[in-house]
Amino acid sequence: MERFLQFFATIRWQDLVDIIVNSYILFRVYVLFHGTNAFRVLVGITSLWILQEVAASLGLILTSWAVRGITTVAAVIIIVVFRNEIRSALQARNLKAFFWGSPVREQATPVDIVVQTVFQMAKKRIGALLVFPGKEELGEHLHGGLLWRGTVSQEMLLSIFWPNNPVHDGAIIIRGDQIVEVGVLLPLSQRQDLPSYYGTRHRAALGLAERSDALVLAVSEERGRVTAAKVNTLTPFSEPQELTHLLNRHLNISDGVPTNRRKRERLRLTVAAVLSLLVMTGIWFGFTRSQDTIIALNVPIEYVNRPGGFEILDTSTDEARLQLYGSSALIKSLQPGQVLVRVDLRKAAEGKNLFPITQDNIIMPPGVFLNKVHPPNLEVNLDALISKELPVQVDWAGKLPDHLNLVKVSVAPESVSVVGGRQVLQALSTIYTAPVRLDDLLKSGTTTTSLVLTPPSLKLMSSANEKITVTYVLEEKANQGRK
Amino acid sequence: MSGRRSQLLLYLAVTLTVIITGPEAFAQVSEQTNAQSSEAPNAAAGAKLAHATMCERVDNLMPTRAGLVFSVSAGQVCCFTSFDPVPQPSLVYHRWFHRDQLSTQTRLRIYPPKWATYSVIQLRETDKGPWRVEVTDQNGRVFQVLRFSIVD
């Protein structure tokens, strides 16, 4: 019991936030994608992943290898094949709906009005075609159509399908309580086994139902029948109550009676929320609480807040060897750059400074802990920046033609002012040019070259001195007397 | 007469110091030095540097093949210096630097009334690059800096 309490005492508030945020993300994924084909495939992929882990832990080499390949391919397929569903699920009307909306509350189609109207149209032998989209995107199956955006009412429906209306032959799309499009052309079913009394309107209803999760109602003007197309089935309805029931089920709507359906829906969401919390808690503990893996890393040391007027002359080491521990998942996923050793030079002075490398200097991802560090101390030698006037000397290279001798050289400028560390500059007496080739020199002349600043921390006081003009005098060796 | 002869012999005598530094190499002198040298007054107890040059050889007390670049194939390079006047016996140094690193230094003795002396280094492939020779007195005061290069 005491160990149990000790364990909970180590949990930080950040850990609780971590679990809650990720649980909610998982829950929202479930809410947004539930009922879609993409969700079912996602469940399948998750099952495959679990199978792969189990196979790997049992040492089933070929099985785990094959399942891993299938999982990878399936993950790509789900994105490509179900892109429309994914887009549809993520295209919430607003941020509130995306983060908080419930599919139950979003549906508000006036089912009674629709049912009453379609049976009235059937009685009057007015043909009609009504589409109630499910969760899948229909865009690629629909053609034509006019934006309508009218509120569903009996009069509106009757007027759209009135025989003299220019758009009465097409289908209408109903989302919520809105008729969003009219005059839409639907794909026709290619089935050969349909009864002959089903005309083009029914083939269109079935065609869309076969290709999506939409529910399509067709009203026959010849036979005065109401037929619903769902998945691969055409179902005639003679009773309004039956159609109401079907529409409510499709639109996920409570049918008014304080309904078991709404209660079931709430229960389903509650269970999903609890499961999300449990799953995420389990994953979190698996990721962060097991501390079974130790790794040693050589991490470069980063120096920050170097005091102005100083430069780093040298350090006792360029990297520290850290021994870290944590769960194997976190340790395996460590990336370069996630672990840093950072030394703050804000309080450093000129000369040698000793810094202990402690937990405070080391930046690690959450859930990874420091076991050992080597070396325990770091020596940083800071050099004050000064300037120094140094003479310029030409660095000749190559081979002068045998008959010539270089007898005089002048450089402009003769000296340059260099800025660098005091200790570095104290050891320097000359700045050399880049190598100047002698091979091509045949007569006296002038050339330009640049300076080589070594070490690279040295800087010229004036950038105007970056180019050096070299004037040289050559003489024939035969002309030279003894000098 | 014998005193005058001995004085003449002393004047003509050249202190030859050949520094064989093994892996080290040497060379030196130039006109470039005129622009870049620094001369210290009252150096070496009043001795004055009359002439300094880098050369391949010193023959009959005279520098031969003076220049600013010397091929490593020449095998050696000399730093020739002559002082006039030399008020009293004293020491001078030829300090040879390869790329700002002291390679070797030669201590040379000079005598009144004037004196010529030189130092030599043997050259190796690794000696290619820029060199300088600082001619100083025993107190470290610089008479002249001679700059040159060892090349292919």
What does this structure look like?
Chain A is α+β, with helices and mostly antiparallel strands. Chain A contains 14 helices and 23 strands. Chain A has helices spanning 2-9, 13-33, 37-57, 61-81, 83-90, 95-99, 103-106, 111-123, 154-161, 200-211, 240-251, 260-289, 328-332, 422-426, and strands at residues 128-132, 143-151, 171-175, 178-185, 215-219, 226-230, 233-237, 293-304, 310-315, 319-326, 340-344, 351-356, 362-363, 369-374, 377-393, 396-397, 404-412, 415-421, 431-433, 436-437, 445-452, 459-460, 467-476. In chain A, strands 9, 12, 15, 17, 18, 19, 21, 22 and 23 form a 9-stranded mixed sheet that branches. Chain A has a 7-stranded mixed sheet with strand order 2-4-3-1-5-6-7, sandwiched between helices. In chain A, strands 13-11-8-10-14 form a 5-stranded mixed sheet. In chain A, β3 (171-175) and β4 form a beta hairpin. The radius of gyration of chain A is 40 Å and the shape is elongated. The termini of chain A are far apart. Chain B has 152 residues and is mainly beta. In chain B, 11% of the residues lie in helices and 51% in strands. Chain B contains 2 helices and 10 strands. Chain B has helices at 2-12, 32-36, and strands at 14-18, 49-59, 62-66, 69-71, 76-83, 90-98, 101-110, 115-122, 129-137, 142-151. In chain B, strands 1-8-5-2-3 form a 5-stranded mixed sheet. In chain B, a hairpin with a 2-residue loop joins β6 and β7 (101-110). Chain B starts with a helix and ends with a strand. The chains are: A alpha+beta (483), B mainly beta (152). Chain A binds chain B through residues 391, 393-400, 405-411, 414, 427-430, 432, 438, 473, 477, 480, 482-483, and chain B through 30-32, 35-36, 53, 55, 59, 62-69, 71, 97, 99-100, 128-130, 132, 145, 147, 149, 151-152.
